[in-house]
From TrEMBL:
<dbReference type="InterPro" id="IPR006047">
    <property type="entry name" value="GH13_cat_dom"/>
</dbReference>
<dbReference type="Pfam" id="PF00128">
    <property type="entry name" value="Alpha-amylase"/>
</dbReference>
<protein>
    <submittedName>
        <fullName>Alpha amylase catalytic region</fullName>
    </submittedName>
</protein>
<feature type="domain" description="Glycosyl hydrolase family 13 catalytic">
    <location>
        <begin position="45"/>
        <end position="533"/>
    </location>
</feature>
<dbReference type="GO" id="GO:0005975">
    <property type="term" value="P:carbohydrate metabolic process"/>
</dbReference>
<dbReference type="InterPro" id="IPR017853">
    <property type="entry name" value="GH"/>
</dbReference>
């Protein structure tokens, strides 16, 4: 592979799946291998329209480490200055801009591979790149009109393939966000009226839309048109049987409405047949056993096999798993895994967006063949609000699932026979683009200035505790998007989707200034901790134990930290143990005071009289130093954690 792989071949976008020659696509191609374990990866989720337009200069370097300066041709966007640029945009105009396309591109994303590599990112999760309904404002990418093409706002298929090749050359894998549950608003119901789900009624359809807002002026069936701007493509998906046609979901927890209804205006795809009796909703095995795949599901499966062959994709994040029959997910995952293995990707990962609790996620993973779960509702809540001092970290002395660390233990309760199961199959993150279930949405740092001071705490936990860590774009620049409206929560998710490249919707109510600042303290913190994680397998694959702490060090005065009067501003410590090696991590959720405590360690690995080295601390005067293990509560060490800080000993 060349140092700068570029694919110049441009082929017309297939109008039908029959035009795809898979044997030609894979012939002689050396596909990029899967990782040995996805636990070793650090994911970065970026919203393509909001990430980069390639016009930024200053503050960051190219892939080869050369500073990108303002005198570079065409680079007109300067680095954001909090002193002069924050709060300068008209808020109403700024918010309105955030509701529409802003201008991020695949070329801009490729331009920032050096920025991502130096941050310590090993896999980039990219929001959907596929062509959206013509004229729509679906900048988010979840309203697909052509499943075989890239949206022209983002670039071309060739640019996507070039980006993936360049990412691989940099040691970064690419995960695409994909959808099989629904397409965009590609057809109109009769009279272009809004229909809602009612007892499984199938509603009449006016026709396919030529573009967004069209009342359905195209025939509702297969079309032999040269112009592919309207309806849905490839042509196989134009069959009337592709669609459920039950109208919009109104009760998001009512079975089978949440399976068969339209996801707002996005049109539900009929993926197959399964029992619809609400009394059988709990019986996943029967629903899977009796599931029969539809032609639409077969076509969509082939489409996403195509993208693996065409662009050498390394994994998929599968959207809205809750809204699909488990049998459909199982069919899709099996076929995609087999295809990827045949191409040499032995560990192609499919990460499912599975809303709900831990046990439900485990059952869905087991029954469908998905590799990992994302969106478990306990994780962001318990991680964020533990750090902010409002939640318990957990208590290993009980079987209750009350705290964040409880999520990664007691796996036998879910019939998992290794306590490391959740670490291998759960993607952990504390910020995202949706925040499902939250009315007035805000990023981690968006609710209070103190929260920004806690970013090293929450990131230290995210990167050094169990699970596959994922960082949401902009966190490394302390983005603080928040919906502070009181009388309106419409489009609240816009505030989670500021532009890294500035444009009309930059973070901190700014315009025209970019945020690719490699000197930002949060960027540098993530860079340092991901490097530590890379060097120590304990932090990636180790067993995890919440540790008791003590202010006095007296035997019997050690305890698992718990909120007092509803608040916890104290030390939270945990160990990661792998092959008789222990690393002790600790965070301080008090942003005003550094704290010194005794922390229990494993006495068989670190007996009294032995020593442990400080490998990392957020203290400004950090120097490597050793501490002696003392005979307190078995074995313990005395550590100091800076205010709002993070330390690692080993």
């Amino acid at each position: 592979m060349s140092d700068n792989p570029v694919f110049t071949e441009k082929r017309p976008v297939e109008r039908t799946l029959r035009e795809i020659d898979f044997s030609e696509l894979v012939k002689g191609k050396q596909f990029y291998p899967s990782p040995a374990s996805w636990e070793d990866e650090v994911l970065y989720f970026l919203f393509l329209d909001r990430f980069s337009d390639g016009l930024e200069s200053g503050g960051f370097a190219s892939l080869d480490g050369m500073p990108v300066e303002g005198n570079d041709s065409g680079r007109t966007t300067l680095l954001f200055s909090p002193q002069t640029d924050a709060g300068t945009a008209d808020r109403d105009a700024w918010f309105e801009a955030g509701r529409n396309w802003c201008g991020g591109t695949i070329a801009g994303m490729k331009d920032k591979l050096g920025y991502l590599k130096r941050l310590g990112i090993t896999s980039v999760w990219v929001s959907p790149v596929f062509r959206q309904v013509t004229g729509s404002g679906d900048y988010h990418g979840y309203g697909i009109q052509n499943f075989l093409d890239v949206d022209p706002h983002f670039g071309t298929r060739e640019e996507l393939r070039d980006f993936v090749a360049a990412a691989h050359q940099s040691g970064i894998r690419v995960i695409l966000d994909i959808i099989i549950n629904h397409a965009g608003d590609v057809f109109a119901y009769e009279g272009n009226a809004q229909y809602t789900y009612q007892d499984g009624c199938e509603w009449p359809v006016q026709g396919y839309r030529r573009h967004s807002g069209d009342p359905g002026s195209l025939p509702f069936g297969r079309m032999d048109f040269e112009n592919t701007d309207g309806a849905v493509w490839p042509v196989e998906l134009q069959d009337e049987s592709t669609w459920s046609k039950h109208g919009e979901i109104r009760n998001w927890d009512c079975f089978p409405e949440f399976l068969d209804g339209d996801f707002c205006t996005l049109k539900d795809v009929h993926l197959g047949d399964a029992p619809k009796d609400p009394a059988l909703a709990w019986d996943l095995q029967r629903r899977i056993r009796e599931f029969r795949p539809s032609n639409a599901l077969r076509h969509l499966t082939e489409i996403y096999q195509f993208w693996i062959a065409y662009a050498d994709i390394d994994g998929y994040r599968l959207d809205t798993v809750k809204h699909m029959e488990p049998g459909a997910v199982r069919y899709f995952a099996t076929a995609v895994h087999e295809f990827a293995i045949s191409a040499g990707k032995e560990n192609f990962y499919i990460i499912g967006e599975i809303t709900g609790g831990r046990s439900y996620a485990a059952s869905i993973l087991d029954s469908t063949g998905l590799d990992a779960a994302l969106g478990i509702n306990d994780i962001p809540d318990k991680l964020e609000f533990m750090v902010k001092g409002w939640r318990s970290p957990g208590n290993p002395d009980t079987d209750e699932q009350e705290g964040y660390f409880d999520l990664f233990r007691n796996s036998l309760l879910d019939n998992k026979h290794t306590r490391q199961w959740y670490g291998k199959h759960i993607v952990t993150m504390f910020d995202d683009h949706d925040q499902v279930g939250v009315r007035h949405k805000f990023r981690f740092a968006g609710d209070d200035f103190r929260s920004e001071l806690l970013l090293p705490v929450v990131l230290g936990l995210n990167l050094a505790s169990a699970g596959i860590p994922c960082i949401y774009y902009g966190t490394e620049q302390a983005f603080n998007g928040a919906d502070h409206r009181r009388d309106d929560d419409s489009y609240s998710d816009v505030f989670l989707r500021e532009c890294m490249f500035g444009g009309p919707f930059g973070s901190r109510q700014s315009v025209g200034r970019h945020f690719f600042n490699e000197s930002h303290p949060v960027y540098r913190f993530i860079r340092d901790v991901t490097a530590l994680r890379h060097d120590h397998i304990e932090l990636r694959r180790g067993r995890q134990y919440l540790r008791q702490v003590s202010a006095t060090g007296f035997d019997g005065d050690f305890y698992y930290p718990q909120p007092m009067n509803g608040q916890l501003h104290w030390i939270i410590a945990w160990s990661r143990i792998f092959a008789q090696r222990e690393l002790l991590c600790a965070v301080n959720t008090d942003t005003d005071n550094g704290l010194t405590v005794f922390v229990v360690v494993d006495s068989s690995i670190h007996p009294p009289g032995s020593s442990m080295q400080c490998l990392y601390t957020t203290a400004d005067d950090f120097q490597h130093h050793a501490v002696t293990v003392e005979a307190r509560q078995g074995s313990s060490i005395r550590i100091t954690v800076p205010a709002g800080g993070f330390v690692v000993y080993g």
